[in-house]
């Protein structure tokens, strides 16, 4: 299995968010910002986001992992870490 | 059998534009099948046929603007061999579109024209609640979504030639980035794209293409069972279901539960469709007019409510420890697409409480309260570009939290993409507004007349809570009720909120 780099993971997260919020403006959302607030992602959207991430990375993401998906940076770290 | 007419989608609708036919002459349609898409000044609505039959003649062309009640198609008697099956409505429509293609000619010539006076169910007098949510509003949100997503019938900025070219090449225009003026898709935009499927045009029905986009199924991976191997909607659904089975390997617990739900839920998107919601509004243009139209519709209804309905407001804070723990257990080992959010339990409790306190579930009509015979929850859905829609979950008191979750997801997605059906915007008997995701703790809402109550929920928050003489930190939610004082007094409203509280203390009971 190819190791997922953090950069790849970051892109995966951004792409997935873009599917939920098609014109998401990432220039206004830094790696440490809470993107859910900034991009108006509600709880249903968030479930869909997790679904996309699980599907694209092939990783198992549990509800207990949700706090690790709070910012783009955290989410990328989490995905890269879980993969390795 | 009879004429299929332009339905009244909301009290203020005068005319509508036929956007798309999903059937053609000769097609056998099952009762409840979606056969056309109608665009009103505010929204795109999928319109169902309310009786089985054979499409004899289409009387209107896509693009025609017609007044409410104008005949759109003639539906003849169903032929004996009609494949009226219990497949989801949409797939049935598409399926029959394929299956019945051959006998089309005979059917057309043989069918007798039904009497013009036959009025299909679609234009019968609406049920008392039909005018409750006249906000089937499509916003600019949808317009911007369509620029990037293959959502809904195309309102894309592209000329007929470009459309034709895209169609020839099997390219979904909604996925094309337009470089022309105002994001218009040009011929060059289409030409420079590699055709999907490594140069081989994938044969698929237009509806299957849209469905594939919505369910995020790669058409290239789907085996088509239609004529000449064309991919039909049913094939796409099958592929989507298989993907979820694969997911079940990763989340074994969900595997046991998922088929059960698919079997009972007749909604076309029963297989959990991933959310691809619309984006932020584009400014101005047609989308701006839509927003203005939606604002006017909301303004009209809310002004009428505040003018005519003497509201009273009640509120109570509910301990959600039991509900939260139950959700956590229920979600363990479930694939993300199967997980429940607290809103599912709140809706379940609200619907059951409405059944217990029927004085709040119904309509104020001609100076008297008329109870509804079922609990149909209208759920306020906010749109990213502003404004709201209130799609209806029918018979919500009989649905499990899991089914409610599936319905909620499906309705929210489609509300935000302008893909609701006529029947999903009417008949609400009680409205629920949940603003928890917007970060507020309580909602004192305005009743949607002729309904007589509105239940509100704020965010689930952790608060200090005294229990058994001890202080602890617990998850709580503030539940509110706006009541019409003409129909009920505060004591009735209090009974309702108490019931919601009691039901939420026993989530197992809601799930059974």
TrEMBL record, chain B:
Name of the protein this chain belongs to: Dihydrolipoamide acetyltransferase component of pyruvate dehydrogenase complex
Keywords: Acyltransferase, Lipoyl, Transferase
Residue ranges of the TM segments: none
Keyword Repeat: no
Limits of the Peripheral subunit-binding (PSBD) domain: 157-194, 203-240
Domain Lipoyl-binding: start-end pairs: 1-76
EC class name: transferase
Organism per entry: Streptomyces polyasparticus
Keyword Acyltransferase included in the entry's annotation: yes
Co-factor requirement: (R)-lipoate
E.C. no: 2.3.1.-
Low complexity composition-biased segments: 267-278
InterPro entries, per database record: 2-oxoA_DH_lipoyl-BS, 2-oxoacid_DH_actylTfrase, 2-oxoacid_DH_E2_comp, Biotin_lipoyl, CAT-like_dom_sf, E3-bd_dom_sf, PSBD, Single_hybrid_motif
Region (Disordered): 105-129, 178-201, 236-290
